[in-house]
Structures are given as C-alpha cells and as structure tokens.
Amino acid sequence: MRANLGFALQKEGYEVVFICPYDEYSKQLKKHFGYVDIQINPKGTNPIEDLTTIYRYYQAYKKLRPDVVLHYTIKPNIYGTIAASMLNIPSINNIAGLGTLFIKQNFITKIAQWLYKFSQKRAAKIFFQNNDDKELFVFNNLVDENKTDLLPGSGVDLDKFKPLKIKNDSEKFIFLMVGRVLKDKGVLELVEASKILKQKYDNFELQLLGPVGVENRTAITKEEVEAWVKDGLLKYLGFSDNVAQYIAQADCVVLPSYREGTPRSLLEAAAMAKPLIATNAVGCKEVVDDGVNGFLCEVKNAKDLADKMEKMLSLSNEQREAMGKAGREKMVKEFDEKIVIEKYLQSIGEILK
Predict the structure, then answer these.
(1) pLDDT of residue 214
(2) Domain match, 11 and 138 both
(3) Phi then psi for 253, rounded to 5 degrees?
(4) Within-domain flag for 121
(5) Is 212 within the bounds of a domain?
C-alpha cells in the first residue's frame, strides 16, 4: 500500500522519498522513489540507542527538508515525529494494532505510553486503523482527538487481489492462515483446533504461510512448527511475497489473532472472495461480519475455533461462495485502498495550505 500511496503522491506532483532500513524491498523502492537508508532496531529498548535513532531521523530530515513526513510503525511514529518537530516539519502518523500497550501493564509499556503522549502532541495528524485503538489512546490522553481520524486498515488493492477461478490441487478442504508465526496470532489455538478436528475429519488440511522465528517475544520456533508438521496437524508453506496464489487455492482463510490493527491477510482474502474465520477481537471483528462473510470465534478458545472450522466445513459450496461474494462486496465498499490514499492526499493538502 505504501508504494501505491507513493505513486499516487507522485501523480499529484509531489517528490517522494522513503526513509527505512535497507532490506530486500529497498532495491525496488530505489527504482521509483528517492531512498534513504536508516538504521533502526525495531524491538530494542536501550535509551541510548533510541536517542541515536532520533538523531538519525533529525539528520535525514535536516538534509532533505521535506514539507511533510508520513510515519508508520512504533519507532518512526515516536522518534521520527520528535525529530521532525525539532525542525518544524509536520508529521502524519499511522498507529496500528497497539492494544498490548494497555493489556499488559509493566514498566516498559508505561514508558511507551509516555513516549507516545510526548511525541503525538507534536504530530499534525494521527490515523488509527480501528476505533477501539483510537478510543484507548484518547481515553489515556495520549493523543488530541481533534487530530485523529480512522482509516480502513491499510486498505486493499482490489485490482491485485480479486476472485480467481483456481481450485486447490488437493482433494481436501484447505484452511489457510497467513501471517507471522506468533503465539499472539493465535497459532497455538489453531494447532489445537486442528488436533480436535482431526479426531472427527480427515477431509481437510491446515496450511500456514508466514515467517517463523521472527524477532518477537511471542515467536514460535522452527522446531515447534516442524513437530506439528510431523504430527500431521498442518502443512507449512514457508514465506512468500506472492500471497495471492496461496489464497486463491484455499477454501477458507483463518486468523485467530488476539488483537490486530486491521489484518491485511483478512482484507486480501475477502477481496479474493474467500470466506473467513477470525476471532471476535479488535481489528478482526471489523473485517468479518459473523455469519455473512465468515465466522467469528472467541479469543484464545481452541474449542470454539474448532467449532467454527467444523461449521465452515459443513456448509455447501454455494453457501461458502455466497460468503465470499459478501466479503468482496464489503472490501469494495469499505476497504478499498483508494479510500486510504484519498484520506492521505486530503490531509497532506490541508497541512500544506
């Protein structure tokens, strides 16, 4: 989505520069946009390291002198905004899926909340991806509500993610989960649900697509995944940039996450007219209308998840196709990324006046 926003800004006559750590996507960005490599430790909590991050942003912004900066993810939202404010450069921030800051109260989360309060006072505009996160930040006095607005997640590219007439190669019904392999994504509950269903059915396959062993406190190890594969509880597909081809071959996309901003995997699957199963959690419940384009299950409840998966299995092809069609219509109406791009263009225009 950020590349598409960049192209939209270029079309409006803006010069666009991406500032982010170098990775496998940086070469592609360099082909179309300005690019500045910046070193950030996204999970680090060392105060000296974070002060260095502010200084790096300050140096980059002082050199570029942008008219406005758009920040995404935690450290750019906080430290990038502080650096930009020191140079009187307006910031537009995108805050997504930070409910854990309020669920697990400890010393680190209190510092994070204070940093958000300190930095977001200096932002010109703050976007949230769901109303629950916005209300939490407003209630805790971390943001000025007058500066906030809601986005439909990151939106979804409806031209890229569209219904495809591709049937899976397997004779079995395919449940697919797309995302980082984390406990917070509900992977443990999903495996347990698969174990429950395996006791009654052998006509389905659970597939898992996403990176294993990522840098996260709830990361699941490669060895754990291999054990599940060996026990026949799931098929691990690895990691791919071409998510659409896997969604196309799935019969239902599942995400039993504990909390989200607005999950891209559900948006993309719904756009491709796939029925969904997700938790009745912040971020997920905005995408799934229970009984219409999928089913909602209880958070951290493997039995209820298994029940909803069994319910999906028992539907006729026509009923599942109707759910998929309803999901596509919902994406067109509510989650088209053009809505997100238009909100950014409008906010930038207002700031630059």
Answers:
(1) 81
(2) yes
(3) -105, 135
(4) yes
(5) yes
Number of domains within the chain: 2
Residue 227 sits in the same domain as residue 293: yes
Amino acid at the residue 114: W
Does a structural domain hold residue 116? Answer: yes
The segments of the chain whose pLDDT lies below 70 read 1, 43-44, 97-105, 167-169
One domain for residues 140 and 178: no
Reference 243, options 211, 286, 204; nearest CA is: 211
Within-domain flag for 269: yes
User: What would the two tokens of residue 315 be?
Assistant: 């539907």
CA dihedral 156, 160, 165, 169 (to 10 degrees): -90
From residue 316, give the alpha-carbon distance in Å to each of 58, 319, 322, 351. 58, 5, 10, 52
pTM listed for this prediction: 0.89
> Which residues are 95's β-sheet partners?
128
Range of the domain at 85: 2-155+336-352
Element (H, E) at 329: helix 317-330
Query: How distant is the alpha carbon of residue 92 from its chain centre?
Result: 18
Distance CA 52, CA 272 (A): 43
Per-residue pLDDT of 253-289, as tens digits, reads 999 999 888 999 999 999 999 999 999 999 999 999 9
- The pLDDT value recorded for residue 26 is 87
Q: What is the pLDDT of residue 96?
A: 83
Where would I find the beta strands (DSSP E) of the chain?
A: 17-20, 34-37, 69-72, 91-95, 125-128, 148-150, 173-178, 204-209, 235-238, 252-255, 276-279, 294-297
